[in-house]
Amino acid sequence: MKVKINGRHVKLEPTVEAYAREKALKLEHFFDRIDHVAVTLYADGKNQKLVEMEVALVRGVRLVGKAAAGDFLEAIDLAEAKLQRQIQKFHDRLKAHRLRTGGAGGRPPSPAETEQTYEQVVRDMLEEKED
């Protein structure tokens, strides 16, 4: 997984950059198919520190977590927490889809797998009459 950290009109301290990299790499624990993470740190005119973390997942899915706080470390924590929730929701949707379609491969069962033959239908009808 690639991590790219940018500072927009802000000089990044090595400790802040290392902390952002650590938090970005932590996201891989929640979903292992992350292609890359882009972290952008910037400040507005009101002494607010803003962080935007963008995660690129499989098949072109992009998730974005934005946060503002008094310092960069707190803003990084907030943005990372937002992304954790988004990644968990995405992962849960993938799992639910696999369960609905009937397999880990994500393909629905073929009609040949779900349809009964004529003999099976007749056998089922005879068993119902016997009960």
Topology of helices and strands:
Blueprint: E1 2-8, H1 14-26, E2 34-43, E3 49-57, E4 62-69, H2 72-101, H3 111-114, H4 118-130
Helix pairs in contact: 1-2
Low-confidence stretches: none
CATH architecture: 2-Layer Sandwich
Please state roughly what percent of the residues sit in beta strands, choosing from under 5%, 5-15%, 15-25%, 25-35%, 35-45% or over 45%: 25-35%
Write down the Rg: 24 Å
Task: Give the overall shape.
Answer: rod-shaped
Report on the structure:
By secondary structure, the chain is of the alpha+beta class. The chain has one domain (2-130): Double Stranded RNA Binding Domain. It has 4 helices and 4 strands; from the N terminus they run βαβββααα. The chain has helices spanning 14-26, 72-101, 111-114, 118-130; strands at residues 2-8, 34-43, 49-57, 62-69. It has a 4-stranded mixed sheet. The termini are far apart. The model has no long low-confidence stretch (mean pLDDT 86).
In short:
With 131 residues, the protein is of the alpha+beta class. Helices cover 46% and strands 26% of the residues.
Task: Please name the defining characteristics of this protein.
Double Stranded RNA Binding Domain; 4 strands; 26% strand
